[in-house]
Amino acid sequence: MDIAELKRRLVLPVVAAPLFLVSGPELLIACCKAGIVGSITAENARAVEELAAWLDAIGRDLDRVAQQSGIAPAPWALNLVVRNDGSPRFAEQRALVERYRPPIVITSFGQPGDVAKRVHHYGGLVFHDVATMRHVEKCIEAGVDGLILLTAGAGGHTGTANPFAFVPQVRKIFDGAILLAGGIGDGRGIRAAEVLGADFAYMGTRFVATRESRAGDAYKALLISQQMADVITTDRISGVPATFLHGSIAMAGLDPDALPPLSAPRTPALPDDLKAWRDIWSAGHGVGLIDDLPEVATLVEGLRADYAHARDA
Length: 313
What we know:
313 residues; alpha/beta; 12 helices; 12 strands
């Protein structure tokens, strides 16, 4: 599959981002059935056996959808956190990639070159997270097919670059796929990403607030009640710059305006009973656009209508 074929198989140029502790097979399958790329991160499975069971279920369910409807669902993606330190867990995850052959592999952190070679061997695509031009240049050398530009306002681990500067500068040196991440929450934002020069919008926060996501009720309620001003970017919770909700920090018993300092580089000094992502929840700047908790199919239909209106205006 190449980028042109990927675009043809989607009803919208959207990739639903892999969400730590939130994306499960249910969310991925719902996204693919609705016509956008659904994804899951390998880190959400507690063991390689559980991940294999998920990948079995994903393949089986998407095949059933294709047989019943006569229309192939959108391609799906598996996210790998790349470890270049000989990690046995990563080696097992990489072996599952070669066994199940996800059409798209999204790589985060680390050097993606080895993964790219393995995925290209069976005809898949590799997209890698980047936040700076230095990261861009390294990933181009590694041979990835697409770059996920983490810009200011992206949920989770985030970047600081302005998309109006970042996208065109990357396009000057890269003719592969550009996926823009950062505060995109509606169809107009998807269209704006295209006008700017991106191939796909990379959306995370909006899909946390869906029926199929594994986020808890309290987390989903915060996504409706909190606004962009409630998104705090800090390294004090996960050890690296990431976005977290003010209300979630307060609910965890911490003062959002006086977070504990790092105890060592990349090491947050949180109480032992608190964990980033599990107990303190993330969102990007697009949180202010969320006012409901729809099923994925309903959300995608709304995005399509909004996108078409913006495109035809």
